[in-house]
Design a protein that fits this description.
The protein contains 14 helices and no strands. It starts with a helix and ends with a helix. It has helices spanning 2-11, 15-27, 35-47, 51-63, 71-82, 87-99, 107-119, 123-135, 143-154, 159-171, 179-191, 195-207, 215-228, 231-243. 72% of the residues lie in helices and 0% in strands. The protein is an all-alpha fold and 247 residues long. It is globular and about 65 Å long. The longest helix is centred in the C-terminal third of the chain and has 14 residues, at 215-228.
């Protein structure tokens, strides 16, 4: 019913309705999933100046939804959305600069956008800014600052931030070592589908770090991580089978 009403509003010319109708088609929420229709509604709304649709359209061009990937168009639409101070658009545009997609790669530009998004409270921006502090990209390496920003993002249930924060506790980077806390964070992140966290849960169980040692449960988590796409888990599991010491 929501999708039906949003699309009726879209047909009547309401840009917010176009945005929500596009999202319904993009996610298959209440209607059959149809990326092409999603892009059509996002574009109509974006051309009317709707910042959320501008961001969504940029993401569609980045991912290649319904059409081939076009990083230049993605950047153009993300810039329009970022100019309206949409923090998630800034965080996404920062990722384009970090990876050099549609723009020359620039950690400095990425950091500016991540920081602006983070200060607005965007969890992606907070996680990425923390990652730059952790790795010393465009900023002096600062584990305490990384911990503080990961903490903010993790408080919003950001899966990668939970895993990254767990790693800082695990390795005593910017905070006292607390492997029990690290394992708790890995578990929460893994439950939300983060493949790196799944691997960290596996390793914690296999070696008994931060939790009771349980090799069989750890191997099961390793398999889950591999299925989710973790190359590190694939390597670790392959090594265990190769050495024959754990399995």
């Amino acid at each position: 019913l929501a999708a039906k009403l949003f699309c009726e509003a879209a047909e009547a010319g309401l840009s917010e309705g176009m945005t929500r109708c596009g999202f319904a088609y993009n996610s298959g929420a209440g209607v059959a999933e149809d990326p092409k229709k999603a892009v059509e509604w996002y574009r109509k709304s974006a051309e009317l100046g709707n910042g959320t649709s501008q961001r969504n359209l940029g993401i569609c061009y980045r991912a290649g939804n319904s059409e081939k990937k076009d990083y230049n168009k993605a950047v153009d639409w993300l810039r329009k959305a970022a100019a309206q101070d949409l923090p998630d658009a800034k965080a996404t545009l920062g990722g384009m600069y970090e990876r050099g997609l549609g723009v020359p790669a620039s950690d400095l530009e990425a950091e500016k956008l991540y920081r602006s998004a983070a200060e607005y409270g965007d969890a992606d921006g907070q996680n990425n800014l923390a990652r730059f502090y952790e790795n010393g990209r465009a900023l002096p390496k600062d584990y305490a600052a990384a911990w503080a920003w990961y903490q903010k993002a993790a408080a919003q249930d950001h899966p990668a931030a939970m895993n990254n924060l767990g790693f800082l506790y695990d390795q005593a980077l910017g905070i006292g070592q607390d492997r029990v806390k690290a394992f708790e964070l890995y578990q929460k992140s893994a439950a939300l589908g983060n493949e790196d966290a799944m691997n960290n849960v596996a390793e914690s169980l296999i070696w008994g770090e931060g939790t009771e040692k349980d090799v069989s449960a750890g191997i099961e988590w390793s398999r889950k991580a591999v299925e989710a796409g973790s190359s590190r888990a694939a390597f670790n599991l392959g090594r265990y089978y190769d050495e024959g010491k754990i399995v």
